[in-house]
Specification:
CATH architecture of the largest domain: Alpha-Beta Barrel
Distance between the termini: 42 Å
Strand content: 15-25%
Radius of gyration: 18 Å
CATH class of the largest domain: Alpha Beta
Number of domains: 2
Number of strands: 8
Order of helices and strands: EHEHEEHHHHHHEHEHEEH
Structural class: alpha/beta
Number of helices: 11
């Protein structure tokens, strides 16, 4: 992966997580970190949760940091999970509130069974413990916070695979909404959506390039606005494919570090892994322009 030398003042980070989902920095701490690193702007994109947006927005206003509200949604696309990042939606709109109600009902359903499954696999975990450690909701992220405390020196993704994903698969819990529903609701709420990390398992990993392109074309037909052009773990070939696909379908380019704090310690906010990420500020400008276009058509 390339080592990129760019002034942080010309960079943005449009894929960042807080303690509201599975990061280790509070929303305010993220704003302070962005300010300290002299990053030009950022988006808070917690998984299926918006609880941190008000705190981040307030802190950004106080500290003079450019801020874009967002949320990363998990969708069920052709029997696989994919992530899309939504930006700029009106949190008070009926369309968003209705979508969010459905998302949260799905995400919080069956969590006691998940805890029981994990305990049956030998990890001493109780529902009361998870609820006592909640930062926002009784969901897989609250459960995962308790698991990571048991294994402070372990990488997070293997723990997700061993405990959370195996529980969801075994219990047959489908918590994810369909792309058409998400895209329609976010557009009606004045926001836009971008496909995140297409190359990952929660993405289009395992498909050929032709199959990946066809899948993205299907999402574009449903109204997908953009795709991550910048992501720390892209290979050179991933980057070339993302750039070509964005150009072919006239997609809005987005990108970011997918920063999770200590839960992904090899990734830094703004600069990715060993300075291999540089998202220029005009990417944020482009997203805001697209949001304005969507809102003008409402």
């Amino acid at each position: 992966m390339p080592n990129i030398s760019v002034s942080a003042e010309g960079l943005v980070d449009l894929h960042v997580h807080s303690t509201v989902s599975d990061g280790t920095c509070t929303p305010r701490e993220l704003v302070e970190l962005v300010k300290q690193r002299k990053i030009a702007g950022f988006a808070l994109t917690d998984h299926d949760l918006i609880n941190g947006l008000d705190e981040a927005e307030t802190a950004a206003r106080e500290l003079g940091v450019r801020f874009l509200p967002g949320m990363e949604l998990t969708l069920n696309f052709r029997s696989r999970r994919i992530h899309v990042v939504a930006y700029g939606f009106d949190r008070e709109s009926y369309a968003f509130k209705n979508l969010y109600r459905i998302i949260r009902a799905n995400k919080e359903r069956g969590m006691e069974e998940v805890v029981n499954f994990i305990r049956d696999r030998g990890l001493d975990l109780t529902v009361d413990e998870v609820k006592a450690s909640m930062t926002s909701a009784f969901d897989v992220y609250a459960i995962m916070r308790c698991i990571t405390r048991r294994f402070p020196d372990s990488r997070v993704m293997p723990l997700w695979d061993k405990y959370i994903y195996s529980a969801l698969d075994y219990l047959g819990l489908n918590m994810d909404i369909a792309p058409k529903m998400a895209i329609s609701a976010i557009h009606k709420a004045g926001g836009v959506l971008s496909l995140a990390h297409f190359h990952k398992r929660i993405g289009l990993q395992g498909l050929s390039r032709q199959e990946q392109e066809e899948s993205i074309a299907a999402l574009v037909d449903m109204g997908l606005d953009g795709m991550e052009k910048y992501y720390p773990s892209y290979t050179d070939d991933d980057r070339a494919f993302a750039a070509a696909t964005i150009e072919k379908f006239d997609l809005m380019p987005t990108g970011g570090s997918d920063y999770h704090g200590a839960n992904r310690a090899d990734t830094e906010i703004g600069t990715g892994e060993n300075n291999n990420l540089a998202v220029p500020v005009d990417i944020l400008d482009g997203i805001e322009t697209r949001i304005a276009q969507v809102r003008s058509n409402l």
